[in-house]
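To fix ideas, we give here one paired sequence and structure record:
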Amino acid sequence: MTVHWTYIVECSDGSFYTGYTTDVERRVREHDRGEGAKYTRGRAPVELVYSERFASKSAAMSREYEIKQLSRAEKERLVAEDGSVETTRRADD
């Protein structure tokens, strides 16, 4: 069974980037090497500050969208409350 992740990295300029992946460690390495999203190029190194685990791609991508709609302050609260602690959500959550 494939695991799907929504994650937030903090870029070197202090900004947040939210994304979706099936392998968080690989994806963070890609961001650090400038091979990740266009947004994170030139903003490396990045630090993983938050991640959530999902059973389905659609659930993870829905959560990614939700997080991207949050204000900076709301994202800061999310990171402060949950940090890099893995949370698991079922596909029907």
